[in-house]
Write a structure and sequence with these properties.
alpha+beta, Immunoglobulin-like, 2 domains, 352 residues, elongated, six-stranded mixed β-sheet, 4 helices, disordered C terminus
């Protein structure tokens, strides 16, 4: 099980062909079956190059799950990463650095069976950090997701769509999410207000950390976050010195300081769908928000002024009409009839 042609070509291109030879060996086992040896399983060796790990060699385990990579260059600046492929999933092992004082290394690679449903994922800790800004709330979430089972959760495909293993709900109005790790940024997508991924989840823990902004259109900000996993501990931290204008449906902790308010729930697992609501008062608004409300107010004043002007003209016309006495035409006739008409007309002209 020597170095493959791919590795020889890569070593020559990278300038490692004259380095001393080293050896990486080990075994591959099935962690879902009591660490039983994986026979006839593909093992891939990667090496660091330009900040990434690229495949440089591959081999297959024997009947006892053993593998060997020999004739490897020994260089302190070169890091190796062996891994095992099992049911279409790659399980990397520990990183290996060969040096002139230690030219050999032995590793143990663990793979698992797969499970499609139900999801075994839980959240050991969910931290929500809030930093008020001008017209927005900057939110940093850190979620420790754990698979406590002994199988890799791969999800179940529906409607001819790839399986989704995790969905994370986000507040309304989010159009961009930034992960602290590029790997997660590549494997999570923002779809209909939720972060979704097809990543398989092997047994163990994985930490997710991401940042987004929630727009604020009023003088107070409201952050509503629905839990997507059974969660053992939730911590909400708000960067503000005004503790009296912050409210949350979680208990306030004694860890609250002069520049930070902290709410926390622990000791009781919160179910999926539990809503965390945070409200902050006196959040500064953006100039665009002020300008929009000023424009609305000006439009209201203009409409009201026009209505009052039209109403005033109507009232003036009505008052003028009521103050003008009606005119009557008195026709000549006999004296009595004429007198009655003159009295009705309100005018008296003596006869000559």
């Amino acid at each position: 099980m020597g170095v493959s042609l791919l590795l020889l070509t890569w070593l020559a291109a990278a300038g490692y062909s004259d380095e001393p030879a080293g050896v990486i060996s080990g075994t591959a086992v099935n962690g879902s079956a009591g660490d039983r040896a994986l026979a006839g399983t593909e093992i891939v060796l990667r090496a660091s190059q330009d900040g990434a790990f690229v495949p440089v060699a591959a081999t297959t385990t024997d009947d006892q799950g053993r593998f060997l990579f020999s004739e490897l260059p020994v260089n302190q600046g070169l890091i190796y990463l062996p891994g095992v492929n099992h049911f279409g999933i790659h399980y990397p092992g520990s990183r290996v650095r060969l040096t002139p004082d230690q030219t050999t290394a032995r590793v143990r690679l663990i793979a698992f069976e797969t499970a499609a449903s139900p999801s075994p994922l839980i959240s050991r800790r969910h931290e929500i950090g809030v930093q008020p800004g001008k017209g927005y709330l900057e939110v940093t979430e850190t979620i420790v997701v754990e698979n406590p089972s002994r199988a890799t959760f791969v999800g179940q495909a529906t409607d001819d769509r790839p399986p989704v293993t995790l969905r994370l709900s986000l507040p309304e109005g989010i159009d961009k999410v930034t992960f602290d790790r590029e790997f997660h940024g590549r494997n999570f997508q923002l779809h209909e207000g939720r972060l979704i991924t097809e990543l398989p989840w092997p047994p163990g823990s994985r930490e997710l950390k991401f940042i987004y902004r929630v727009p604020v259109e009023q003088r107070f900000g409201v952050l509503s976050r629905v839990l997507d996993l059974p969660t053992e501990q939730v911590v909400v931290q708000i960067a503000t010195s005004k503790a009296d204008v912050v409210a949350c449906n979680l208990p306030r902790t004694a860890a609250t300081s002069g520049q930070q308010v902290v709410f926390q729930q622990r000791g009781k697992t919160l179910p999926v769908g539990h809503q965390i609501v945070l409200q902050l008062g006196a959040v500064p608004l953006r100039f665009e928000t002020y300008a929009r409300w000023l424009a609305v107010a000006a439009l209201v004043v203009l409409v009201a002024g026009s209505v009052w002007a039209v109403r005033g003209r109507q009232l003036d016309r009505s008052a003028h009409h009521e103050s003008t006495p009606p005119t009557m035409s008195c026709q000549p006739g006999d004296t009595r009839r004429r007198l009655r008409k003159l009295r009705r007309c309100g005018t008296w002209f003596p006869q000559r």
